[in-house]
Write a structure and sequence with these properties.
Layout (H helix, E strand, L loop, with lengths): L2 H29 L4 H8 L3 H18 L4 H7 L1 H22 L9 H28 L12 H5 L2 H22 L7 H19 L6 H20 L4 H18 L3 E2 L3 E2 L8 H34 L17 H5 L6 E2 L2 E2 L9
Antiparallel strand pairs: 1-2, 3-4
Length: 345
């Protein structure tokens, strides 16, 4: 087992874990409008770091597998470019929904739902690229061409994508404690898990008892929430991370179905140096993520509660910039509050 490949798999698992959380957030925006404040509470601290982790993974992969990256770029140039453009749009609409002013003709929910639609498309594109690279569906043996017809005609590809989205839908109830028709949570989760497992087996990917144990654990999380109404969000992060990691490690160094990553691995001194850079960069990014989570949840603790309010008592928008970059007692929505002669505002 190669340490370079293993670290790259860990980074990929982190990327898809964050994307899975964004998928749950996007589904929640579309399914239950009342979940908007709670969802944004957890989405706002991580959305910027998700993009950073994606870039971090791509750079690491380019250093480790320089000879195969041109082929991947050539085969998937359209979905990669489309996902990149959509990623920019996703950022714009999420920021707009965060800082929309009161009385605007655009509602925060409408902008958030546009973000949701864009996020769905990005996740479908990235899942398609991932499953094609690992299984080889759609790519010819010489890696000189990609057949969209072959890829789209494979039912297991759709089963993999739909199964993943159903799992995200089912667990979104758990993660954001959505009560609206919560009986759909175990139904969607179990159906998605069955589709997911059948699809990865149909695509020729390896599974073992670890796959089934993780599936049972994920199903139990959803069932227990439906029965008891209690949950721990950290469990979903861990389950998503371990699930992606297990798929990669059970199909270790497998690429395009029959090819081995070892044949594309960079054996120069750059690979050794990349481990140090990856470990330092990964540690810094993780520390940043934890810091943002801590800072964003800090006001709730100081106020003695867990309730999140989209607006304060005066109807003023509360955003992460207003809370931590621009003091509330000085500026609101970018406008200076002037003091009177007596020093009062």
């Amino acid at each position: 087992m190669n340490v370079y490949i293993s670290i790259n798999y860990v980074l990929l698992a982190v990327v898809f874990t964050f994307l899975f959380v964004e998928g749950m957030s996007a589904i929640s925006f579309m399914y239950d409008r009342k979940s908007l404040p709670v969802v944004k509470k957890y989405l706002d601290p991580i959305w910027g770091i998700v993009g950073t982790f994606v870039v971090f993974f791509v750079v690491n992969a380019e250093v480790l597998y320089p000879s195969i990256m041109p082929a991947i770029d050539y085969l998937y140039v359209f979905p990669i470019l489309l996902a990149t453009l959509l990623f920019i749009g996703r950022n714009l609409f999420l920021v707009f929904s965060e800082y929309i002013w009161k009385g605007s003709r655009f509602s925060q929910l409408a902008l958030a739902r546009i973000y949701s639609l864009i996020t769905f498309i990005i996740i479908i594109l990235l899942l398609s690229i991932f499953i094609s690279i690992i299984s080889g569906v759609g790519a010819n043996p010489s890696l000189t061409g990609f057949s969209a017809a072959v890829f789209l005609s494979n039912p297991y590809v759709f089963g993999f994508i739909i199964g993943t989205l159903l799992i995200a839908f089912g667990l979104s109830f758990v993660f954001y404690k959505i009560e609206k028709m919560k009986f759909l949570s175990p139904m969607a989760t179990v159906t998605g898990l069955l589709l997911f497992i059948l699809s990865i087996r149909g695509l020729g990917l390896n599974t073992n008892y670890v796959t089934y144990l993780l599936a049972v654990a994920i199903a139990l999380v959803s069932i227990l929430y439906y029965v008891t109404g209690r949950t721990r969000r950290e469990v979903i992060f861990i389950a998503a991370f371990l699930s992606v990691l297990s798929v990669n490690f059970l199909n270790y160094a497998k690429v395009f179905g029959t090819k081995s990553l070892y044949s594309y691995l960079n054996n120069s001194a750059v690979s050794s140096a990349s481990i140090l850079v990856t470990l330092i960069g990964g540690t810094l990014l993780t520390a940043m993520l934890l810091f943002f989570f801590y800072m964003y949840k800090l006001p709730d603790k100081e106020n003695g509660g867990d309730n999140y309010s989209e607006e304060n008592d005066n109807g003023e928008k509360i955003g992460i910039a207003n809370l931590y970059i621009i003091p509330n007692n000085n500026k609101v929505n970018g406008k200076e509050r002037k003091k009177g002669k007596d020093g009062k505002r």
